[in-house]
Each structure stands twice: as structure tokens, then as C-alpha cells.
Design goal:
The protein is 40% helix and 20% strand. Helix 2 runs parallel beside helix 3.
Length: 249
């Protein structure tokens, strides 16, 4: 089975790589036979006979063009061996307008390639798709749109802080106070001019307390030092990713 995960940025990629390797048993294999020119930066993984690519797109606005590439590959493939079996898109709810545009763009792409859907497009649920490939055979694949946080507006950082708060009440209090602290600063919006900047500031303030010695390392290095596989909220949120490996179904 061949699968592709599309995410927005480097923080997302670092977290997903850690989670897929530690929690789900994938191995990073840059020499993998499964190669696609996709995204801004891409990492390859294998698990037994299954292949996985995780691609950083560089932002929400770049996800639809990358999905377009994948759908074009599927519709032009000449045989089943060239097929992509599963596509996962992981994005956030940080900007409501961009989310609505994203969903609209997905529907337009399905129409463009005349893809037949076996079920309704719903967030956080697999969608069964079929389409004719380059030799007019009907081929099947699945897509999953994971929008995080699931229940509120926010970015990946919001989701991670929520996971921390759910796991430990003490840390939850620190997260709450850090968020309140950031909310009271920069009323003139000189530095935190966008909601996304404020979200990232809340994340950094919390980790500057939790890991003060490491705070000036890159964010993805800090993420890798947290045992996210022990966080029940993380396991539950990413449980559908187990479907990328046959023996984990």
C-alpha cells in the first residue's frame, strides 16, 4: 500500500514524523522506491510492504495544488502498481475563511477529475473514491481530511497545548496562565499582528517554562523531546493514521 500525508509546515512534519515512527512503527527510508515530487519538503517511510510519504506544503493555500498533483498522478497512472492508495490531508482551523476556501477547492478538484465519491465529504472520516486511470480502468483510493483542533478554532500549536492540558492538570494550569499572559500583551498589535502569531507565542511561552534550557533550539527539536505517544488525546486524534499500514487495521 502506498500513502501520502500532506501537512502545512515544518512543525507539523516534525510532529508527524515522530508520531508515525514511535507510535506506529514506521521507519524513515530516504532511499525508498516510492518517490513523488510533492510539497516543499518530503520524507519517506516504510513498514513491511507499505510505503508512506509525509510532505510539507508550506501553508494551507498550497495544499490544494499538491492534492491536484496527486489526483493527476492517479488519473494518469497506467496500472495498479503506480497507484496511490490513501491520501491524508492534515490542516488546522486557524483561519475560518481559508478553511472554507480549502473545502471548496477540494470539491472543485473532485469535479475536475470526475472522481466518484462513495460517501459524503466529512471531516476526520475516510472518503472512498473511484476514478478512471490513464488506460480507462476504474481504480479506487481513499482520502482523509484531518482538521485540527477537532472542536475549536486554532492551529497545531493549539492542539498540542490541549493535549498537554488533558494529560496533566498542573501543566494545564500553566498553559491557561501562559495563554492569558499572551492575550494581555501587545494591545497595539505591533508584533503579534495576526492570530497565528499569537497562537505560536502561547506555545513558545509554555515551552520556555517547561524546557527553559532548550527554548532557543528550533521548535521541531523541542517537539521531538516530548513523548507524544504517551498522550491519550494524541493517540485518539491520530488513530485513523493506523489505516496506512495493513497489519494495524
Amino acid at each position: 500500500m502506498k500513502s501520502v500525508i500532506l501537512c502545512e509546515g515544518g512543525t507539523d512534519l516534525a510532529l508527524l514524523q515522530y508520531f508515525m515512527e514511535v507510535a506506529n512503527g514506521w521507519e524513515n527510508r530516504e532511499g525508498s522506491d516510492f518517490k513523488i515530487n510533492i510539497g516543499k519538503y518530503c520524507k519517506a517511510f516504510t513498514q513491511e510492504d507499505d510505503y508512506l510519504l509525509i510532505a510539507e506544503t508550506g501553508g494551507c493555500s498550497n495544499i490544494c495544488p499538491q492534492i491536484n498533483k496527486l489526483l493527476r498522478l492517479i488519473t494518469r497512472s497506467a496500472n495498479q502498481k503506480e497507484m496511490i492508495d490513501k491520501i491524508v490531508v492534515i490542516t488546522d482551523r486557524d483561519e475560518v475563511d481559508s478553511l472554507e476556501q480549502f473545502i471548496s477547492g477540494i470539491k472543485n478538484l473532485f469535479g475536475k477529475y470526475e472522481i466518484t465519491l462513495q460517501n459524503e465529504i466529512l471531516e476526520n472520516q475516510w472518503i472512498s473514491c473511484s476514478v478512471r486511470n490513464g488506460v480507462k480502468d476504474v481504480v479506487h483510493f481513499e482520502m482523509l481530511f484531518l482538521l485540527i483542533p477537532f472542536e475549536t478554532t486554532g492551529a497545531l500549536e493549539t492542539f498540542l497545548l490541549e493535549a498537554v492540558s488533558k494529560k496533566d492538570k498542573y501543566d494545564g494550569i500553566i498553559v491557561e496562565k501562559c495563554n492569558a499572559f499572551v492575550d494581555t500583551l501587545d494591545c497595539a498589535r505591533k508584533y503579534l499582528s495576526k492570530r497565528r502569531y499569537k497562537t505560536k507565542a502561547k506555545f513558545d511561552v509554555y515551552f520556555s517554562i517547561r524546557t527553559p534550557v532548550e527554548q532557543f533550539l528550533e521548535r521541531h527539536n523541542i517537539l521531538k523531546n516530548i513523548k507524544w505517544e504517551e498522550y491519550e488525546y494524541m493517540q485518539e486524534s491520530f488513530k485513523e493514521l493506523k489505516a496506512l499500514h495493513i497489519n494495524q487495521l
